[in-house]
Design brief:
The chain is of the alpha/beta class. It is built from nine helices and seven strands, in the order αβαβαβαβαβαβαααβ.
Length: 275
């Protein structure tokens, strides 16, 4: 009997999201894919979302389902379109029965002086990095309230806690994410729903690599030199944040052990905001 109890406890510990279902926006690559993978490994069903070649996305979906024995769906929802976001949440509910966990991760990133920023890039940054999270939260909250359980995890940024030059649009949106997270957390505090923000430092994602290539071309330096410049400016520990680290934190925040953590903006930034 003791052996059976230990075995059951070990299984629960290794798959703490067994029976839960999540939507992770912007999860066909980078941070989102790292979180979606961590959720699947923890036993959670996952709806992927994002752009990409449909064959490649289908291979990702099938691989996660096969490797971790969970249900994995995909939505091509456009995060700039509120109706598309609502349809994604409805599709998640239909696929899994419930949407217990929402991770708002989809984002765009523009670097440059404020007075040189194209107005359409400002508008797009707020639409994708901030408003999309609002529309998704608005869509999932009624179901979470009805079941008296839910986890909302918003991917903000260290730039959402401290400003940075040439990132006015991104910083504005990520500060907004932190403020919205805290407000939602207070609204649902009497329930078993939590809302938290993860604030990563510099993560080596395809998004960062594209920016590094653009900087390298503009300044006549190598991509490695451009990436080293990112680290020198932002990360006191001298290394990139790994997507697996963010995935592990997201799993913890989604687990029963984190039921008293809400309204938090948690830096994972190698000391960036400690300076």
């Amino acid at each position: 009997m003791l052996t059976l109890q230990v075995s059951e406890h070990s299984a629960h510990q290794s798959r703490p999201l067994e029976g839960r279902s999540a939507i992770v926006t912007g999860s066909t690559s980078g941070i989102g894919l790292g979180i979606a993978t961590a959720f699947a490994k923890a036993g959670g069903n996952v709806m992927l979302n994002g752009f990409g070649n449909r064959d490649v996305v289908e291979e990702l979906r099938e691989g996660l389902a096969r490797n971790y024995s969970v249900a994995v769906a995909y939505s091509p929802a456009d995060m700039s379109n509120p109706e598309s976001i609502a349809a994604m949440v409805a599709a998640g509910s239909e696929a899994f029965g419930t949407v217990d966990i929402l991770v708002n991760n989809a984002g765009v990133f523009h670097i440059g002086p404020t007075d040189a920023m194209a107005p359409e890039n400002w508008d797009l940054s707020l639409k994708i990095n901030l408003s999309a999270a609002f529309h998704a939260i608005r869509a999932v909250l009624p179901g979470m309230k009805a079941r008296n359980w839910g986890r909302i995890i918003n991917i903000a940024s260290a730039v959402g806690l401290a400003g940075a030059p040439n990132m006015a649009a991104y910083a504005a949106a990520k500060h907004g994410i932190v403020g919205m997270t805290r407000s939602v957390a207070l609204e649902v505090a009497p329930t078993e729903i939590t809302a938290n923000a993860i604030c990563p430092g510099t993560v080596r994602t395809p998004l960062i690599e594209r920016e590094a290539r653009a900087i390298a071309a503009a300044q006549g330096i190598s991509v490695d030199e451009a990436l080293a410049g990112f680290l020198a400016q932002t990360m006191p520990n001298g290394r990139f944040v790994e997507t697996s680290e963010l995935g592990a934190l997201a799993v913890f925040l989604a687990s029963p052990a984190a039921r008293s953590i809400t309204g938090a903006a948690l830096p994972v930034d190698g000391g960036w905001t400690a300076r």
